[in-house]
């Protein structure tokens, strides 16, 4: 054999002792769930390791305020009472008395926005409202973010997944007008926000379909008269900010909303492969009464 004649010897494995770094703090082993766990902070402190202090911080967004400051209280019977009646005249007098603070806020807004005017702003707010709802029906997130604030966005989009929304603005029953204005500050004294409440009385259609295409709410053919109080906000200190939809004021005397029509699957009887279902002789089981609270 050629290999035997050459007498080749393979070198053996070489072992070099290597000193590793001593681990003062050993993480808990896998599979310790259910067993008695020691306090890791006390164990690390005994090993000479200081735990970093954890701060309970919550990020905030200063592009918009957290809510509606000093919200407008709509008079009861608005859009139904005439200003010539006794009750309507009393409410009109109360509005004039409370408009002093709104005039001061409008002056403050005009210091930062020289083009602001209560005569033209109501029409601008109505256009923002229409464009925002059109973007909502088309699920255009980028355009919706530019028309509504970060507080209003989740309120408009919550629960709309797997649903189809059909909304249409028909006409204005009354011209929109500015009824309330406030200029609050947040975080610091000079960080001002302008909040203007616009009264809008219009005719709209709304229809919501579930993911199966069944009608849940409203109708596309039957328009309804809607009286709304929109809150439009702008970060006045930021020169690149714009007026956006911030919220809506729902008065306490407003009628309740129409109930949502839900699609529920009624369980049927368990049939054998050779049996057929007879719908005439089957009684739907009634659910048991359960006590609940809200």
Automatic annotation (TrEMBL):
Major place of residence: mitochondrion
Native species: Xiphophorus maculatus (Southern platyfish)
SMART domains according to UniProt: Tim44
Coiled coil: none
Signal peptide, first to last residue: none
Keywords annotated in UniProt: Mitochondrion, Ribonucleoprotein, Ribosomal protein, Transit peptide
UniProt record similarity statement: Belongs to the mitochondrion-specific ribosomal protein mL45 family.
Name under which the protein is recorded: Large ribosomal subunit protein mL45
Lineage, uppermost ranks: Eukaryota, Metazoa, Chordata, Craniata, Vertebrata
Keyword match Ribosomal protein: yes
GO CC annotations, alphabetized: mitochondrion; ribonucleoprotein complex; ribosome
One Pfam family recorded for the sequence: Tim44
Ranges where the Tim44-like domain occurs: 102-250
Function (record text): Component of the mitochondrial large ribosomal subunit (mt-LSU). Within the mitochondrial ribosomes, required to direct the nascent polypeptide toward the tunnel exit and position the exit at a distance from the membrane surface.
InterPro entries hit by this protein: mtLSU_mL45 (IPR051975), NTF2-like_dom_sf (IPR032710), Tim44-like_dom (IPR007379)
Subcellular location as annotated: Mitochondrion
């Amino acid at each position: 054999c050629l290999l035997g004649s050459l007498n080749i010897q393979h070198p053996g494995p070489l072992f070099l002792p290597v000193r590793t770094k001593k681990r003062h703090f050993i993480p808990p082993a896998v599979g310790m769930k259910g067993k008695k766990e020691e306090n890791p902070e006390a164990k690390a402190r005994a090993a000479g390791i200081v735990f970093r202090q954890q701060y309970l911080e919550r990020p905030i967004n200063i592009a918009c305020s957290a809510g509606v400051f000093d919200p407008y209280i709509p008079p009861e019977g608005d859009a139904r009472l005439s200003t010539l009646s006794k009750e309507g005249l009393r409410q009109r007098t109360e509005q004039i008395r409370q408009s002093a603070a709104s005039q001061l806020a409008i002056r403050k807004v005009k210091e930062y926005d020289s083009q602001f005017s209560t005569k033209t702003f109501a029409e601008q707010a109505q256009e923002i409202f229409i464009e925002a709802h059109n973007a909502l029906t088309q699920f255009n997130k980028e355009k919706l973010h530019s028309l509504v604030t970060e507080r209003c966005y989740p309120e408009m989009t919550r629960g709309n997944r797997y649903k189809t929304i059909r909304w249409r603005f028909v006409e204005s029953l009354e011209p929109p007008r500015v009824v309330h204005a406030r200029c609050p500050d947040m975080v610091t004294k000079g960080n001002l926000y302008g909040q203007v409440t616009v009264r809008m009385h219009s005719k709209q259609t709304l229809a919501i379909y579930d993911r199966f295409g069944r009608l849940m709410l409203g109708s596309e053919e039957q328009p309804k008269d809607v009286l709304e109080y929109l809150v439009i906000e702008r970060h006045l200190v930021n020169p690149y900010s714009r007026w956006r939809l911030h919220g809506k004021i729902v008065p306490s005397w407003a009628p309740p909303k129409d109930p949502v029509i839900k699609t529920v699957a009624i369980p049927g009887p368990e049939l054998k492969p050779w049996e057929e279902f007879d719908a005439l002789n089957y009684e739907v089981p009634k659910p048991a009464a359960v006590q609940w609270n809200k």
